[in-house]
Design brief:
The protein is mostly helical. It has one domain. The protein is built from five helices and no strands. The relative contact order is 0.15.
């Protein structure tokens, strides 16, 4: 069987994550549920798949730097796919912004120490920040999780080298 590159493993993992995310959204009509952890577990599994197959391919002789570079090639592709997915999904579902406004308005009205003008200002700011905050949140979270998983797994693998 031909060896699949780290980038292609990232592409495969990212596509699977998108399919899982769309399936969860279609089933639950939102992402505010514990099923979303399946997507993150798939992300971690894709990175680990890349690193452990690299260990096998190199005979467990690679350095930490080489493992991290291999993991980076995988998780950067996944992060890019997931950010593009987030942008496209938000553009295709403008009703999500209105749902956020409705929920936020209800929550703010429950607070006794807030004026109607304050509520209006907070809602206006939330509307402006909705798209950029979700996209930047996706960028940061996927990069941070990918880097952390790659760092820990690379350190673990290199600490298990044969003597």
């Amino acid at each position: 069987m031909k060896n699949i590159s780290a980038r292609n493993k990232g592409l495969i993992t990212g596509i699977i994550m998108i399919i899982i995310s769309v399936s969860i959204y279609l089933a639950k009509k939102n992402f505010e549920n514990n099923l979303q952890y399946i997507t993150y577990a798939t992300y971690v599994a894709g990175i680990l798949w890349t690193l452990f197959s690299f260990r096998t391919a190199t005979g467990n002789t690679a350095t930490f730097k080489q493992y991290f570079a291999e993991g980076f090639k995988c998780f950067i592709v996944i992060a890019l796919l997931m950010v593009v997915f987030t942008v496209v999904f938000l553009l295709l579902h403008p009703e999500l912004k209105e749902q956020m406004v409705t929920l936020m308005t209800e929550e703010l009205k429950k607070q006794k120490d807030i004026t109607p003008l304050d509520i209006e200002n907070k809602i206006a700011f939330a509307k402006k920040a909705f798209f950029p905050s979700l996209v930047m949140g996706a960028v940061f979270s996927y990069l941070a999780i990918g880097a952390l998983v790659t760092l820990i797994a690379s350190a673990f693998i290199t600490s298990q080298k044969k003597s």
